[in-house]
Amino acid sequence: MANPVSCLIPIRQDSAAACDDLVTALQNRILVGDYPAGTRLRQELLAAEFGVSRMPVREALHKLEALGLVEIMPRRGAFIRGPGTEEIREAYVVRAELEGLAAELAAGLIDDSGLAALREAAVLFRVAVDEFTSRPADPATWPEANDRFHQVLLTACGNRRLRETVLLIHGSFPRNLTWAALSESSNLLRRNAAGHQDILAAIEAGDAAAARTAAKSHVLRSGELVVARYQRSRDGRMS
């Protein structure tokens, strides 16, 4: 059965947009363990489930194959390859180094408008966490607020190639995967919000080294939670 989080992703009807949305939705299902390794993905069933034609489904499966998540076998169809926990951990290690660099650069380059945007993003994120932990709230609010903080940070670093590389890694591990791990505990969510505050405080102080350390630690902590959650999901399905 599909994870409720993955069902939150709307599928647009434009063919190219539908393909991208399908990639995101299917990535999330694979990475949270809804589709165990070896599961066959039938084009006709996916097309019916998501309300699209088979063409964007076929294109999405080929993109997932390029990402190493799906194996397409001639005359047999597409099967889940599934990442190993070490692959996920390695990706977060790389992302931590890159986002640490972005924070370091931002500490020296950010202007008043960028700093204001980063402060606003941190406040929105903290409010989203408070709302979710105190009462039922839209599960999409936290990922959106989280994305906004990291996007503002990446823009402030002033390095387009660095920003594009980090976003490429983000695309391999959808935002909902981190949400699935952190939403299991209000304490984890609050610690995640505190991580943003640590990054912001270092950048406000113009402390490049502290900004790099705070951003790197923040991403690594999230990565370990994601790995642990993914491993528990796989173990549960194998038992």
Outline the structure in words:
- There is one protein chain.
- It contains ten helices and three strands.
- The chain has two domains: 6-80, Winged helix-like DNA-binding domain superfamily/Winged helix DNA-binding domain (Arc Repressor Mutant, subunit A, Orthogonal Bundle); 85-238, GntR ligand-binding domain-like (Four Helix Bundle (Hemerythrin (Met), subunit A)), CATH 1.20.120.530.
- Mean pLDDT is 85; it is low at 1-8.
- β2 and β3 form a beta hairpin.
- α4 (85-109) packs antiparallel against α7.
- It has 239 residues and is mainly α.
- It is elongated and about 60 Å long.
- It has helices at residues 15-31, 43-50, 54-66, 85-109, 112-134, 141-156, 160-172, 175-182, 186-204, 208-238; strands at residues 40-41, 70-73, 77-80.
- The two termini are 17 Å apart.
**Number of discrete domains:** 2
Largest β-sheet summary: 3 strands, antiparallel
Structural class, by secondary structure, is: mainly alpha
Order of helices and strands: HEHHEEHHHHHHH
- The CATH architecture assignment of the largest domain turns out to be Up-down Bundle
Proportion of beta-strand residues: under 5%
Question: What's the SSE blueprint?
Answer:
Blueprint: H1 15-31, E1 40-41, H2 43-50, H3 54-66, E2 70-73, E3 77-80, H4 85-109, H5 112-134, H6 141-156, H7 160-172, H8 175-182, H9 186-204, H10 208-238
Antiparallel strand pairs: 1-3, 2-3
Helix pairs in contact: 1-3, 2-3, 4-6, 4-7, 4-9, 4-10, 5-6, 5-9, 6-8, 8-10, 9-10
